[in-house]
Design goal:
It is built from eight helices and eleven strands. With about 220 residues, it is an alpha+beta fold.
């Protein structure tokens, strides 16, 4: 872990954010006081493009992509807004993500979120399901920026999606990765109990980049 972090010239704080853990927990992994979990190994492979063979055996190249190519990706930043009022929507109240995105003028927020120095966001909704656990759990809030073109995707980033499932809308949060199949993308979960899934691009009805998240530690 330490070798990877140093090769990418990342601080412990920055790398810990990718794992959804604290700096102290990362330090314990780096000093060998605790092992690397399967979930954390998945993060290393998916987020940092670490070579799985090197990770398991120490043989071969550390990365499947040049670390010099990864550094700008890992360090990219969005222009932040000192103050903004982000509308929080209820998916049930808007009858789904597609109506919310296509007719935002009629959508009525249930509340507003005020957090300084956030990237510009179009809105926020509560997460349902555990596909991104432990980074996100059901009830957490994700703040998003709507995308209008599938070609604008940053591969490997986290997205809020509306999918066509036999005529029904299915809303989920996933990492989106490239697929070897023409016209398809790969949806990847943080939760190791959820298998990766390849879906046709034409089944994506709405798409938004997750810009920030709010953890709900207690709910009534």
């Amino acid at each position: 872990m330490k070798l990877i972090r140093r090769e990418l010239d990342m601080s412990q704080e920055k790398m810990a954010q990718y794992f959804g853990i604290g700096k102290a927990a990362l330090s314990m992994i780096e000093t060998g006081k605790t092992g690397i979990s399967t979930r954390n190994k998945n993060v290393l492979v998916q987020e940092f493009d670490v070579n799985i063979d090197w990770l398991e055996t120490g043989e071969g190249n550390m990365f499947t992509t040049s670390p010099d190519m990864m550094k700008p990706y890992l360090r990219r930043t969005d222009t932040t807004v000192p103050r903004q009022c982000v509308p929080l929507y209820s998916i049930e109240g808007t009858a789904g993500l597609v109506p919310l995105f296509t007719d935002k003028e009629k959508a009525r927020p249930v509340n507003y979120i005020h957090i300084p120095n956030l990237p510009k966001c179009d809105g926020a909704i509560n997460v349902v399901g555990d596909s991104m656990y432990p980074l996100l759990k059901s009830g957490d809030i994700v703040l998003y920026k709507q995308l209008h073109d599938i070609n604008d995707i940053f591969w490997g980033d986290m997205y809020l999606l509306s999918l066509d499932m036999d005529g029904e809308e299915y809303i989920t949060v996933k990492y989106i990765q490239k697929s070897d199949r023409e016209g398809y993308v790969k949806l990847v979960s943080q939760n190791p109990h959820h298998a990766d899934k390849e879906i046709a691009v034409e089944r994506i009805r709405a798409l938004a980049l997750v810009k920030a998240s709010i953890r709900m530690n207690s709910m009534r």
